[in-house]
Structure to design on (159 residues):
């Protein structure tokens, strides 16, 4: 039997956790069946290190990142969570390529902008959270979008 004086109460002075959802994707072309668990482990570790509580995870296994239409979990996240809920602040994704390898890099940026419009910040955990008013972060993110798109173009050419 546990007595009331033996129960650890939450520290009232501890900062509240920031809440987030997380998105994971791998394509059938990746041929890495363990890709999503690896992404999960890395994103969860980043969240733990930065005081972020993940309240929902979205998975698109075996789905191409070339568009959003063929990714039901991504679209559920955007339509039902980003657009309609206000109980979290961040959208965590391992890196830009997991967010998508959109051939039109403006589409990738558009989905991030929709998140921003709905007061959610997309954080690519391999890059980290941008510093406040960092003028170079958007440039770097756009470059990463270009690299992700270029990788899929090169892969198409090889196949």
């Amino acid at each position: 039997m546990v007595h009331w004086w033996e129960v650890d109460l939450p520290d009232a002075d501890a900062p509240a956790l920031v809440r987030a959802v997380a998105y994971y994707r791998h394509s059938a072309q990746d041929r890495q069946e363990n890709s999503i668990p690896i992404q999960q482990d890395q994103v969860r570790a980043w969240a733990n290190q930065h005081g972020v509580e993940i309240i929902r995870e979205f998975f698109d296994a075996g789905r191409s990142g070339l568009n959003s239409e063929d990714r039901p979990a991504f679209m559920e996240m955007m339509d039902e969570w980003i657009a309609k809920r206000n109980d979290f602040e961040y959208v965590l994704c391992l890196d830009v390529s997991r967010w998508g390898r959109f051939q039109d890099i403006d589409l990738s940026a558009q989905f991030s902008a929709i998140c921003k419009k709905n007061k959610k910040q997309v954080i690519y955990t391999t890059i980290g959270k941008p510093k406040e008013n960092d003028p170079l972060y958007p440039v770097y993110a756009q470059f990463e979008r270009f690299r992700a798109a270029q990788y899929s173009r090169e892969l198409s050419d090889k196949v």
Summary: The chain has a mean pLDDT of 82. DSSP finds five helices and four strands in the chain.
